TrEMBL record:
Annotated Isocitrate dehydrogenase kinase/phosphatase (AceK) regulatory domain residues: 15-319
Protein name in UniProt: Isocitrate dehydrogenase kinase/phosphatase
Kinase as UniProt keyword: yes
Organism per entry: Caenimonas aquaedulcis
Family classification: Belongs to the AceK family.
Main location: cytoplasm
Amino acid sequence: MFPQRLDSPLAYDIAKAMMDGFNRHYRLFRTESARAKHRFETADWHGQQRAQRERIEFYDLRVKEATTRLEKEFKAGEQPMDVWQQVKLHYIGLLVDHHQPELAETFFNSVTTKILHRTHFHNDFIFVRPAVSTEYIENDEPGALPTYRSYYPTRETLGETVERIITNFQLQRAFDDLPRDAGYVVQAMSARLVQVKLRANFQIQVLSSLFFRNKGAYVVGKIINGFNEVPFALPILHNKAGALIIDACLFGEDDMQGLFSFARAYFMVDMEIPSAYVQFLRSLMPRKPRNELYNALGLAKQGKTLFYRDFLYHTKHSSDKFRIAPGIKGMVMLVFDLPSFPYVFKVIKDWYPPPKDTTREQIKGKYLLVKQHDRVGRMADTLEYSEVAFARDRFEDELIEEIRKFAPSQLEISDRDGDGQEEVIIKHLYIERRMIPLNIYLQEAFDAGRTSEADSAAAGNARDQIEAAVIEYGNAIKDLVAANIFPGDMLWKNFGVTRNGKVVFYDYDEIEYITDCNFRQVPKARNEEDEMSGEVWYKVGPHDVFPETFGPFLLGNDAVRDVFMKHHADLLEASFWQQHKERIQAGYVHDVFPYERNKRFVRKVAQAVA
């Protein structure tokens, strides 16, 4: 029931204490994000990676702090429900002029669910829908930065404007040659504006904070001319001499989607009003879900909140059923999906057949490693949930039986809410973007090639699809190697193809750090008996890897083998892996670019980036 009066002397104090906890969280989050600028200026790449990992833990630490305080000072868990209803109303009042109201609502939900110790919560006690609008929020305090800056160049002053855009970020490190790089940017922009009439509203809008990730800083903005808007991003890197350079000019929604991919590490951005940044980014990438943009900005809990709201909305407006996901079933994870929804749901099985030797906690540790690590565009991000309830009538019986067989500890079917509706409750699951499994993608190309042999054009398209996928597969592994990740199980089924043709790894139960692996050549046979033996006759340690043995498992198809050996034969050599391991151990941080190398200005400068 909605409270008629706010008569609890504790309700406001609880709400205020909870808001204090959130404000502390966001202050620390923002401070750490702002420090990324100094780490970039000083080329502290290891510090940048460490900060990106540690910042992920900030939220849970602050929730724990707030929960402890509320229990200690107010015995919050013992308060009756009418007090909690009043707490929520007071909290809404505190959100009215807040600059991060949507994040504060999510924080309230996190703390409340910890304190009330319930699996499901009546809507009166948490924010199922947002209570406060995030539109048109501005920071009117003196000296506050606007969300974005607007520049009004002419064709003649475009170069000067680009230089001013860069210098306004006040990077404390010299550029190698900023006028030269601005000239390259102008050339790239002019190619978009040639034979185009510049309208009265011609302008460039640029977000006021740089986006930092790994060894790069990114200027993000858009060109507006008449009714057209063209998104762009300028990556700023260090060259070999340690000076700054603008490395490329990325244009269009596809380039921006690649930059903000769900398979990449989170950015560090100093934002006073995150919802305004998300609104601006949505204008650049209208197909990008808001939850993925919040994730990309490092606000993963808000991303989870928005994802779940989107999911509930989708299930309300759809009628298809959850099913066992198509493809080869995994030994460790049970995977199901809803055909109309572009995500898959993964549950850790209760037992694993040989040769798998692992535990539930070890698998959860691997997924946490991926969450905290640089995913270099090659490992899918995951959303992790506990105690998720689904309507029972939306599940195929075959799927229920599959869960009962392989993960009974993770399944409950009951009317836990007491509303007469039976629910399927999954104790713990991961949710990932759906991709086409690479083995299925290749098989479709093989089939298309066979059925279109009389059509040379169609057969050629099938061959091109196979070649592009195999090259991408090898590139994905090499990017993972550069990020100190050994995939473990490199079978085609463990990789997926995104809608942009990017190959991404998504099976994490066997990943290891490259630096923890021992890459060896298979010893020469001692005699003919060894050579003919079907068993391994040499000693193998727990972390030994023999790259030359990958071939028989991966290259059974001649078309695949030909492409692989042409472009990625080095992946079958122990020396390739060992050399990368030694460089990583020596402290080298590899460059992994979130854009194609042919977009780089370095080809004009003939100057490699360190």
